[in-house]
Amino acid sequence: MRRVDAVDEMDTVDEESAWAERVHRIDRLWRLCYNSALFWRNVMTYRVCLIIAGLAVAAAMTGGCARTARDTAGFALEHTTTVDMPFQDAWQLVKTVLRDQDFEIYTRDKRGTFVAHTKVSRVWRVLQPRRMQYTIELAPVSDNRTRIYIESVRQVYGVTLLTYPGWHDRKTTKDEGALTILSAIQDKAATRRV
Predict the structure, then answer these.
(1) Could you tell me if 130 and 121 are in contact, meaning their C-beta atoms sit under 8 angstroms apart?
(2) How many Å apart are CA 125 and CA 3, to the nearest integer?
């Protein structure tokens, strides 16, 4: 028969080894969690760096704001007509036609130059603002004849690294507005003669 209050050497060794095994398991679990946290932190940092680098490369490739100003030579469409009226009457007639067609007259020069703009518009109300600019020049051919020259340029509002925010010329492909202005000028000139 065995005494209950006696301490067996085997029991002590078993308990110590059991505690040592538990501590070892806890230590391994803690190291696994700590190392995996470090691993994921490093992986995520690596991924974030890759994403930021990719976005920077994509922004540089698309151009965005970082582009030079464009050469605007040949962007305008030009039309010329001659009306049978004195220069002063033709100047008043052009001013009246521009006001009737609801253009914003930017420059009115008595020497014979008008700069007029259409109203600002956007495609789908979110894209870059755009407008048309019409430069109209009058020159007397004789006492009773005046030459009217009109130049139309499409403009967009934006900024480049070399410019301040403002209107920039773009290639014009449609000239219905200029033809409408010229036909209105010719019609009014014809009705004044009659």
Answers:
(1) yes
(2) 95
Q: Which residues of the chain have pLDDT under 50?
A: 1-2, 66
Q: Which of 138, 137, 171 is nearest to 154 (CA)?
A: 171
Q: What is the pLDDT of residue 100?
A: 92
What per-residue confidence (pLDDT) applies to 66? 47
Same domain, 58 and 119: no
Q: Rounded to an integer, what distance in angstroms lies between the CA atom of residue 120 and that of residue 67?
A: 24
Alpha carbon distance 158, 56 (integer Å): 21
- Look up residue 121 and give its DSSP letter: B
Model pLDDT, residue 170? 84
The last residue of a domain, from among 39, 62, 85: 62
pLDDT at site 46: 66
* φ, ψ for residue 75, nearest 5 deg: -80, -20
And the tokens for 60?
Answer: 């540089």
Instruction: Identify which of 103, 72, 84, 75 has the alpha carbon closest to the alpha carbon of residue 180.
Output: 103
Phi and psi torsions of 115, nearest 5°: -125, 120
Same domain, 89 and 47: no
Boundaries of domain holding 5: 1-62
> Is residue 99 domain-shared with residue 153, that is, in the same domain?
yes
